[in-house]
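Entry 14. Ran structure prediction on the chain below.
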Amino acid sequence: MRHYELVFVLKPTMTEEEMASKLEAVQKIISSNGGEIYNIDKWGRRELAYPIQNFNHGYYFILNFKTENPELPQKLEYTLRLDEDVIRFLNFKIKPPKKEEEKKEVSEAAEKEGE
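Output, structure tokens:
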């Protein structure tokens, strides 16, 4: 199972409803192609490091998903590239996140070493 992180920036001229529908469309692409989303972060409106398409701000979204379908990232990138409301995106493979139980065990072990 491969884990991915998708970061995309939408135009600042979009309404809340339009942004929600774009996010839902991205989620639908992932789920319909065998992906499973396990984290969604909405960072909101942020200033861009440099102007992109004459915009100085954009709405940032981060999605973490996992899939066994090796074609899903390509399909997702193709769709985002064609969407005029997406001004930037980056999709990359990440290491699988540690489970909560493993995190607790690591923190407990660190506490014991400190005693």
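The chain has a mean pLDDT of 88. Will compare against last week's run tomorrow.
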